[in-house]
Amino acid sequence: MKFTINRLAFINALNNVLRAVSSKTTIPILTGLKLVVENDQIILTGSNADISIETTINQTDGEYALVVSEPGAIVLPARFFIEIIKKLPDQEVSIAINDGFQAVITSGTAEFTVNGQDANNFPHLPEVDGTSQVMIAPDILREVIEQTRIAVSKQESRPILTGIHFTLANGQLTTVATDSHRLAQRNVAVPTSEGQQYDVVIPGNSLTELSRMVNEVDGDVTMNFTDNQILFTFGQTKFYSRLLEGNYPETSRLIPTSSETTIELAADSFLASIERASLLSHQSRNNVVKLTINPSLSVAKISGNSADVGNVEEAINAELMAGNDLEISFNPDYMRDALKSFGSAKILMSFTSALRPFTLVPADDHDNFVQLITPVRTY
Question: What CATH number should be reported for the domain whose range is 133-252?
């Protein structure tokens, strides 16, 4: 195996694949990066227990200036190999395999020899049927992930809640995440063939990596579903993720359909107020901020206190408020995460009582995006 390639372009491709390589694994070869060199392309593969990423570098892509002298394959220690490539002195790098699975890396006046492994020992990628596929715009996919992943559980005691629930039916994709204290749900229209229905739970960590990769993708992302895997294809990259086993809890019944108190305000200005109030709440043991709404007086405020530091109280600028007077306490970190997902949009917050979960929705679109937060009992 021998090839020459533009170093900076090669680094970008390597960094994408590195997202799937874990430094801690029970399968030693998975700390490595698989390189398969063919006559007109290079296929890079990285994998761990959850995700596998495969990127193809084509000779026709002038950015890489790829010249293949001899095909072959090898597995090299991923992080060490990439650090070498990053620190090489020249714009061009040449890589060749000598006898005994050793890679000789040459650039300018520098030459490294790195021990590798037989590529035949690297686990094969999952077989994914290409017929059951769905297309989605990369910006929509990224937005859906970012708006729901904040509610993914970090606790392994209920593994199913560490994922995001994807359901697709009748041309609508619904994504839901919850950690039992908060919930995020987003609906988007997605073109599907007649009868296409999917119900899967994808690990939140997998989707976090995916959202970073599709940030600057041109063209749609293709999703292919199987019983235990999902494949996202975009550009020259394939992103495989395992699916979580089990049934996701029924969450639609958790979202209130009526309210006793409502308030409309700008998400970004309310976020700034929450962050100021949390300066004190973070110094207290319970980390709680209180929201007081008095529609009869057209007054709303947030407050927080710490026995050791002091207290804070701030009036809230609301577009409108209606219903019953209310005092409700909540975790400001949950509120902060929820507000960030709305950007600078106006939101409608709806409450049923001081001890019942409340919702945040866009003021101009109540049906397609909702954040739900469970209040904190303070007495």
Answer: 3.10.150.10
Q: Taking the domain 2-121, which CATH number applies?
A: 3.10.150.10
Domain boundaries, the chain: 2-121, 133-252, 255-373
Whether pLDDT at 84 is above 90 = yes
Give the per-residue pLDDT at 341: 95
What does the pLDDT look like over 127-162, one tens digit per residue?
887 667 899 999 999 999 999 999 999 998 899 999
Q: Which of 348, 289, 286 is nearest to 321 (CA)?
A: 348
Cα-flanking dihedrals φ and ψ of residue 90, to 5°? -105, 165
- Give 379's pLDDT tier (boundaries 50, 70, 90): low
Q: What is the pLDDT of residues 258-278, one digit of tens each?
A: 999 999 999 999 999 999 999
Nearest CA-CA partner of 373 in 205, 178, 204: 178
194 pLDDT higher than 90: no
Q: What is the pTM for the complete model shown?
A: 0.92
Angle between helices 78-87 and 7-18 (to 10 degrees): 160
Distance of CA 186 to the CA centre of its chain: 14
Q: Nearest-CA neighbor of 300 among 289, 286, 311?
A: 289
Q: In CATH, what class is 255-373?
A: alpha beta
**What confidence tens digit (pLDDT) does each residue in 293-352 have?**
999 888 999 998 877 888 889 999 998 999 999 999 999 999 999 999 999 999 999 999
Q: 133-252 and 255-373: same fold?
A: no
